[in-house]
Amino acid sequence: MRLTFTHSPLDHSGLDRARPDWIAARLADPAARCVILNNGDPVAGADGGPLILHPAETDGLGLAWPGPVFLGVADGVPWFAAAPQDGQKGVDFRRVTMACEPALAAILGRARAVLMWLGRRRFCSNCGARNEPRDGGLRLQCPSCGMEHYPRTDASVIMLPVCGERAVLGRQAAWPPGMYATLAGFMEPGETIEEACAREVREETGLDVLSARYIASQPWPFPSSLMIGLIAEVAPGEPLARDDLEDARWFTRDAAQALYETMARWAPPHYSVSRLLLQAWLDGAP
Ligand SMILES: [Zn+2]
């Protein structure tokens, strides 16, 4: 299964993008493309799909600081992203990226993560001076104290606890009726991935993790997470619903299969690593 937001076609051009003349030449390239996101939601074009302009065509939109931000180059096409200061509202990011082709979804995911970071980093978090963009907007430099600021990625563990022929799924009160999913939480400083997995399972269900196996990861631009997907073998016991969970319970393979099929109501199977973990277990992963 090829997860949404993975397999991005973008070459991030990490060495070239440090040269302002190289970025200027990419902006002037007739093939260049720029997606427009307002508060993280793609602005729609005339055809209803995401609006994609040449960077020069964005002048009239009244762009928010710092203007078009370099995302990378895909098949010779330089891609940029920009946010309007106000103006046309975007279409719900999930709805757009569930429907558009995978390469564009990955580009929009990177655009959203970078633009939302920039929107919160206009000023240096160390001294309060106004940051200056570098590397096409993918790095910020404070002219006062010299601190460099980079887009953040918030690592999170997401896991399916299993014991024999059963798996634990939980639900939050705000979710649609009947919806259950894998457990998840942010990693904390000083933790390994396995330790974060064990802590989150213990916090949310009271169950003890015996071992955890990495399955897959997924960039998750809400706004800037990286979901690290695991299947965790847990000791027998009854799960408690704690922390942000309203309920947590054991599912047999048959019950989990039935739930998996009803999940199509909420999102396509490739949209989240949560579904991939469940699929991997249903397919016989230990
Ligand atoms: Zn500073």
Description:
The chain has two domains: 16-121, no CATH class; 154-282, Nucleoside Triphosphate Pyrophosphohydrolase. The strands form three sheets. Strands 9, 10, 11, 12, 13 and 14 form a six-stranded mixed beta sheet that branches. It has helices at residues 20-28, 93-99, 102-119, 193-205, 253-262, 273-282; strands at residues 33-38, 41-42, 52-53, 69-74, 77-82, 132-134, 139-141, 148-149, 154-163, 166-171, 183-186, 209-220, 225-234, 247-252. Helix 5 packs antiparallel against helix 6 (273-282). It has 286 residues and is α+β, with helices and mostly antiparallel strands. The longest helix has 18 residues, at 102-119. It is elongated. Strand 9 (154-163) and strand 10 form a beta hairpin. The site of zinc ion (ZN) has 8 residues, from loops.
Keywords:
286 residues; 6 helices; five-stranded mixed sheet; alpha+beta; binds zinc ion; Nucleoside Triphosphate Pyrophosphohydrolase; 2 domains; six-stranded mixed sheet
Number of helices: 6
Residues in helix, %: 10-25%
Helices and strands: which structural class? alpha+beta
Oligomeric grouping of the chains:
single chain
Question: Would you spell out the secondary-structure blueprint of this structure?
Answer:
Elements: H1 20-28, E1 33-38, E2 41-42, E3 52-53, E4 69-74, E5 77-82, H2 93-99, H3 102-119, E6 132-134, E7 139-141, E8 148-149, E9 154-163, E10 166-171, E11 183-186, H4 193-205, E12 209-220, E13 225-234, E14 247-252, H5 253-262, H6 273-282
Parallel strand pairs: 1-5, 9-13
Antiparallel strand pairs: 1-2, 1-3, 4-5, 6-7, 7-8, 9-10, 9-11, 10-14, 12-13
Bound molecules: zinc ion.
